[in-house]
Amino acid sequence: MIAAARSTRSNRLMRLLVAAVILLPCLYGFSTKFRELVLLYQGDPEGAFAIAPILNYLLASAGFLLLFGWAAANGMFVDIERPKHSMLENEARLGAEEQGESATAERLGDFFRRRRI
Predict the structure, then answer these.
(1) Closest listed residue to residue 117, CA positions, set 87, 84, 89, 76
(2) pLDDT tens column, 32-67
(3) What residue ranges do the domains of the chain occupy?
């Protein structure tokens, strides 16, 4: 039990480290480019045309980030194998219903349920 808790903690720490290694350079690059845009806009009135696309980019990025955060908080990435198996089970059930063979669908569903790890 304690080993499992340690493993979970180390997995979480590793994910955080990988996220920091990827996201921090991206954040630095984006912030320097955004700073350059703001300086361009303040110094040159012709640079104002770039504000609308950048604002759209920021809003879309914020939306995707919020959606990703919501999915991670609700456990959408905990079991990534489940959707694959449920899709195969649903397809087997629908195919059997089409042919009138519900027993076959149940056997296929049991097969896929047993194969889950």
Answers:
(1) 84
(2) 887 877 777 777 666 667 677 778 888 898 999 999
(3) 2-73, 82-115
